[in-house]
Amino acid sequence: MPAAAALDFQGSSVDLARALIGAVLLVDGVGGRIVETEAYDAEDPASHSHRGPDPRNASMFGPPGHAYVYRSYGIHWCLNLVCREAGHGAGVLVRAIEPTHGQERMRARRGPVADLLLCAGPGRVGQALGITRAHDGLPLDRAPFALRSAPQPVEVIVGPRIGISKAQEMPWRFGLQGSCFVSRRFP
DNA sequence: CTTTCGATGATCT
DNA sequence: GATCATCGAAAGG
Hints:
The chain has 3 helices and 8 strands, in the order αβββββααβββ. It is α+β, with helices and mostly antiparallel strands.
């Protein structure tokens, strides 16, 4: 009887991205089950950490198990969970969550959208969970964050990442098999 | 169903 | 000036 995978922030971002599927993430009591992630590793030209530390990505080179928050297209806040990979900054983008906690607050933040779209996409996750620059660099094991690994083993599916122009072919997008809360179907 | 495009600001060349 | 780990609305098949 295998135990659910523990979350290892010292290992590779690909392993962490896979292990995070099914984990429960809350921010100030709002959130749910992670159903979609993408890995961004040290050697990855699509990763913000690829060119080394700078003011924006500093959190990716800080302690593992902390948050890296960045502004996307000038509009959205996107949340990454930082890990360390061969001493280099790496992280996992949280792309979609199945809402289980604080749905009223999510709806208030997201406006009049279908419940299936509350957290279906990295920008939507950021908005629904109230993520801002203030969360950048905060530890994930203390308030306002709460993170616990998947309570039971889950079936994970894999596909190419979304919305990038470099290393498009890398199969580093992970999803919960059969979930209708993912941002897009898997091939 | 698909593709296109504007919003909006930090970062890169 | 161009690009970008996006979203939502609009237009086209």
